[in-house]
From TrEMBL:
Family annotation (InterPro entries): Marvel, Synaptogyrin
Bilayer disposition of the protein: Multi-pass membrane protein
Signal peptide as annotated in the record: 1-16
Family named by the database record: Belongs to the synaptogyrin family.
Cited Pfam families: MARVEL
A GO term from the CC aspect: synaptic vesicle membrane
Name of the featured protein: Synaptogyrin-2
Keywords carried by this UniProt record: Membrane, Signal, Transmembrane, Transmembrane helix
TM segment ranges: 38-59, 71-95, 115-134
Subcellular location: Membrane
Composition-biased stretches (Polar residues): 165-175
Ranges of residues in domain MARVEL: 1-138
Highest rank taxon of the organism: Eukaryota
Length: 188
């Protein structure tokens, strides 16, 4: 949700123009990279959240432990990377906002402040996702290491059709008595 807010604020009112020119410029100190960076990490974070949400839905149905481990590690690494990128984004947007001239922020100042604020909140939300992914990783490793038991082949005991009958003496199977074989032929 925070990524969507940052993206929407920068797309909606992050670009403005002066009353003398028709050319749009980024409200963050006329630095196009600041707006592009915020929009880029916002869109990618939103798409990644949708992907990892779908993975969380189908996670119980994944039976291969190696696939599960790789998905959890991907979630852990991506969350760590995006926490860092949101921190860089917050610092970058805040720095560019501090250098913005007062006459350049007639329209869009609230959206710029909202983008900075929610990029700050995103640092902590992605940090929380790191904690959840690490917890899931540790839980998966412990469950596999401690609760996995190699299945032992069990020989099923035959069912008795009558009580108190031992299974040591079996009846002769039918059709085993063969007729006399023709000359020269020996059955195997």
């Amino acid at each position: 949700v925070f990524a969507l807010i940052v993206f929407a604020c920068l797309v909606g009112e992050g670009y403005t123009n002066s009353h003398t020119s028709q050319q749009l410029f980024c409200i963050f100190n006329h630095n196009e990279d600041a707006c592009r960076y915020g929009i880029g990490i916002g869109v990618l974070a939103f798409l990644a959240c949708i992907f990892f949400f779908m993975v969380d839905i189908y996670f119980p149905q994944i039976s291969n432990t190696t696939d599960r481990k790789y998905l959890v590690l991907a979630d852990l690494c991506f969350s760590g990377l995006w926490t860092f990128l949101w921190f860089v984004g917050f610092c970058f947007l805040t720095n560019q906002w501090a250098w913005t001239q007062a006459d350049d922020m007639r329209i869009g100042a609230d959206s710029a402040r909202a983008a900075i604020t929610f990029s700050f909140f995103s640092i902590f939300s992605w940090g929380l996702l790191i904690a959840f992914a690490y917890q899931r990783y540790k839980m998966g490793v412990e469950d596999f290491a401690h609760s996995y038991v190699d299945p032992t082949p069990e020989v099923p005991t035959p069912y008795s059709s009558y009580p108190n009958i031992s299974h040591d003496s079996y009846q002769q199977p039918p059709f085993t008595h063969t007729a006399e074989a023709p000359e020269g032929y020996q059955p195997p």
